[in-house]
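Milestone 3.1: sequence recovery, worked example.
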């Protein structure tokens, strides 16, 4: 594994699935990792895993939809490691528990709760992180910091038959637009902002889909490079690249990691 993140402090929101896999990956590449998560036990387990492998990690439990909590985890990262050089906003999830679904079936409560879960937390953490980064001197690559926000392949490539969750899709589209606006505003300050948009990945959020035979068969066809659902580690490598100085001249981009999802349509069925 490379040492490209040595000396950098990386803040990751979330502690399971893609967040957990990326935290482990960036720690293995030398980063000091700070975990902000709603569930203390998840954060502590991830910290223990990183430390057992010889890495540096700390965590803090917080509801990141609360402004004070978002600021608190950024301040805690700086206190622990001296800076906040990169942020990966993963915390969020499905809105199904709020009643998200097709627009003719969902209500305003489902919409508001889903956009708060996925949009408000990213907005608040980004605000706190950018304020901290603006106070930091540029690094050797000329950048003050890197922000990576989490979207979904569904924001650009909806799947009406399997994932008709319209508020969730809208929340991820909002994250992409928000990130492009941030990237344009802060490029001259040496702060990069990008988005990663995974397709179907075996995470706790995807438990329902991964247990459904029809969705499993759909993933096997739709994601030929993975032969089905991707693993969180399939996303972590690209995330680590976007958080590192190797991508120092990349900003305002949405990088899709989808094992072919966006390319497969009815005409590709059975093609060889």
């Amino acid at each position: 594994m490379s040492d490209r993140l040595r000396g950098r402090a990386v803040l990751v929101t979330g502690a399971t699935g893609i967040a957990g896999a990326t935290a482990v990956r960036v720690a293995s590449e030398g980063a000091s990792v700070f975990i902000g998560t709603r569930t203390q036990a998840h954060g502590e387990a991830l910290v223990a895993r990183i430390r057992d492998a010889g890495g540096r990690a700390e965590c803090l439990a917080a509801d990141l939809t609360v402004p004070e909590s978002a600021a608190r985890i950024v301040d805690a990262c700086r206190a622990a490691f001296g800076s906040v050089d990169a942020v990966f906003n993963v915390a969020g999830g499905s809105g199904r528990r709020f009643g998200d679904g097709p627009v003719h079936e969902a209500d305003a409560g489902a919409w508001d709760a889903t956009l708060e879960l996925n949009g408000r937390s990213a907005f608040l953490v980004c605000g706190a992180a950018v304020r901290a980064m603006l106070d930091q001197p540029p690094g050797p690559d000329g950048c003050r910091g890197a922000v990576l926000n989490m979207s979904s392949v569904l924001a650009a490539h909806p799947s009406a038959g399997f994932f008709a969750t319209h508020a969730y899709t809208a929340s991820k589209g909002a994250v992409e637009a928000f990130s492009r606006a941030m990237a344009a505003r802060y490029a001259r300050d040496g702060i990069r902002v990008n988005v990663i948009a995974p397709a179907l990945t075996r995470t706790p959020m995807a438990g329902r889909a991964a247990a459904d035979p029809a969705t499993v068969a759909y993933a096997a066809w739709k994601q030929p490079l993975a032969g089905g659902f991707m693993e969180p580690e399939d996303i972590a490598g690209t995330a680590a690249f976007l958080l590192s100085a190797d991508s120092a001249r990349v900003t305002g981009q949405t990088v899709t990691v989808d094992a072919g999802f966006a390319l497969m349509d009815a005409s590709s069925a059975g093609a060889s």
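The first strand starts at residue 9 and ends at 13. The beta strands are 9-13, 32-37, 56-61, 86-89, 145-150, 191-198, 254-257.
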